[in-house]
Structures are given as structure tokens and as C-alpha cells.
């Protein structure tokens, strides 16, 4: 049985006070989530320390949305994986399409970040996904394969055991468009086959989340697909009732 995970990616939203209230709302409803479904919230850096305190012993895990590719030093504005881990966060989102697109994050940089995050006991939630024009040119499988081979396939199997993958078609992020459940399943099965070519049967154990306008109204159908193990949730994770409703959609 693979893990079932619902992770909220808050992106650059909420003040610390709003974040505290949102976590309190999530915690008030967490008892409704079916046993075996893991919840993760990914807050801005500024919220991590109080969020870790608030989430202590709740069973809800905490993630950062990025980390540096260096241990420490003269990197103004960056936050090292060791610093993130010291907050109490246990996951870090890496490779989100917004980081790739707006901050020029390359596969090579993401491999450095992924390796360093793992070294500091942060489990990467590693995002992959194609742009609209890539899907329309029918190169979406090649694009996703390249993203996986450049980073995830460079890891050892011990490292892979700590990684969660998130397939987020870029054309479905913040657009309100969602991949159909068939499109999600097709790509998730493909991702697993790329992992299997390197890691064999271990590919069956890797949790692959779907991301991209996942909401209470569509989560059920998407999560019912055999290779979809949960969701990385954007906008809907900012409303506790919606986030919890999604977590109840398995
Ligand atoms: C979205 O659903 O918009 C996301 O980008 C989740 O990471």
C-alpha cells in the first residue's frame, strides 16, 4: 500500500497572523481526515517556526516551499536546508513550475537542492510537469521524463525512499483548468515507468501527487486513479474546509 498524501502549497500568501489562524482552522477539522491520509502544510519561510510549534503532535507535517543549494555563506536572501530543518519542517517543495519559470531554476540547480535537502533530513516534494505548448506539441512525456531523469534518477534508492513526487501540468496551475482524471492517470503511470527503468520495483512505492487546480469538486475522481496518491493543493489549501474536504476525497 502506497502512502496517501494531501499537501497544501500556500505559496506567497498569508501574514503570520493569518497563517496561524489557518493552521488553527485545519487542526480543528483534522479529526475528519480518514486514517492513513497524511497532511502536509507548506507555509512561507516566515511562518515556519511558529507553525512547527502549532503543529507539534498533531500528525500534520510542515514543509518549506524552497531551500538554497548551499550549506551557508554569502548568499543574500537564501535559506539553507539546515536552517529549514531546524525550524521543525520535515519537507521542502522543490522544482515547482513557478520556481522554474520565474526564478530560472534549472534541473542542475534542482539536483543540488534536492541532494542538500536530503542530506539535512528534509524530504523533497519534487515537482515536475509540462507547459501547455509542450502538451500541444505532443512532447509532454519527453519533458517530464527529462525532468525526472535529471534529478530523481540521479538519487540513490535510499534517497528516493524519502522523496514524494508531484505532477503539476503547468497549464493547470492557477488557471482553473484541471487535467482530466484520465490525463492524470496516463502521466502518473508514465512517471512510474520512468522510475521503474532506474529503480525497478521501488517505483511502486513512490507517492506521486497530482497538482494543478485540484479542489473538492474534482479531487475524488483524480484520487481514484490507481497511480495518483494524493494532491499538492494550491489555492484550495488556503481555505481549511476545502483543504480538509480534499483530504477526505480518497
Ligand atoms: C496549484 O494547484 O496551483 C499548485 O501550483 C500547487 O502547487
From TrEMBL:
Cellular component, GO annotation: cytosol
Root EC class: isomerase
Keyword Lipid biosynthesis: no
Reaction(s) catalysed (UniProt annotation): D-glyceraldehyde 3-phosphate = dihydroxyacetone phosphate
Pathway(s) per entry: Carbohydrate degradation; glycolysis; D-glyceraldehyde 3-phosphate from glycerone phosphate: step 1/1; Carbohydrate biosynthesis; gluconeogenesis
Keyword line: Cytoplasm, Gluconeogenesis, Glycolysis, Isomerase
GO molecular function: triose-phosphate isomerase activity
Binding site for substrate: 9-11, 174, 213, 234-235
EC number: 5.3.1.1
Positions annotated as active site in the UniProt record: 96 (electrophile), 168 (proton acceptor)
Cell wall biogenesis/degradation recorded as keyword: no
GO biological process: gluconeogenesis; glyceraldehyde-3-phosphate biosynthetic process; glycerol catabolic process; glycolytic process
Subcellular compartments: Cytoplasm
NCBIfam families in UniProt: tim
Function: Involved in the gluconeogenesis. Catalyzes stereospecifically the conversion of dihydroxyacetone phosphate (DHAP) to D-glyceraldehyde-3-phosphate (G3P).
Protein family according to the UniProt entry: Belongs to the triosephosphate isomerase family.
HAMAP family: TIM_B
Assembly and oligomerization: Homodimer.
Protein known as: Triosephosphate isomerase
Species: Acetobacteroides hydrogenigenes
Name of the gene encoding the protein in the UniProt record: tpiA
Amino acid at each position: 500500500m502506497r502512502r496517501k498524501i494531501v499537501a497544501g502549497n500556500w505559496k506567497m500568501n498569508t501574514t503570520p497572523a493569518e497563517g496561524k489562524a489557518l493552521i488553527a482552522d485545519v487542526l480543528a477539522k483534522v479529526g475528519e481526515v480518514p486514517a492513513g491520509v497524511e497532511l502536509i502544510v507548506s507555509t512561507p519561510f516566515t511562518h515556519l517556526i511558529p507553525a512547527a510549534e502549532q503543529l507539534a503532535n498533531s500528525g500534520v507535517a510542515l514543509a518549506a516551499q524552497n531551500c538554497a543549494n548551499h550549506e551557508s555563506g554569502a548568499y543574500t536572501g537564501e535559506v539553507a536546508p539546515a536552517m529549514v530543518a531546524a525550524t521543525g519542517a520535515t519537507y521542502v517543495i522543490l522544482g515547482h513550475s513557478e520556481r522554474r519559470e520565474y526564478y530560472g531554476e534549472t534541473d542542475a540547480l534542482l539536483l543540488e537542492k534536492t541532494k542538500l535537502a536530503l542530506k539535512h533530513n528534509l524530504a523533497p516534494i519534487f515537482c515536475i510537469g509540462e507547459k501547455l505548448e509542450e502538451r500541444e506539441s505532443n512532447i509532454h512525456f519527453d519533458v517530464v521524463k527529462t525532468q525526472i531523469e535529471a534529478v530523481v534518477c540521479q538519487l540513490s534508492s535510499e534517497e528516493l525512499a524519502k522523496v514524494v513526487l508531484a505532477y503539476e501540468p503547468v497549464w493547470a496551475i492557477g488557471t482553473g483548468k484541471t487535467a482530466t482524471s484520465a490525463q492524470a492517470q496516463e502521466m502518473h503511470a508514465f512517471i512510474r515507468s520512468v522510475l521503474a527503468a532506474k529503480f525497478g520495483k521501488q517505483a511502486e512505492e513512490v507517492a506521486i501527487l497530482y497538482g494543478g487546480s485540484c479542489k473538492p469538486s474534482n479531487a475524488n475522481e483524480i484520487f481514484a486513479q490507481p497511480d495518483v496518491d494524493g494532491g499538492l493543493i494550491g489555492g484550495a489549501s488556503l481555505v481549511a474546509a476545502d483543504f480538509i474536504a480534499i483530504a477526505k476525497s480518497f
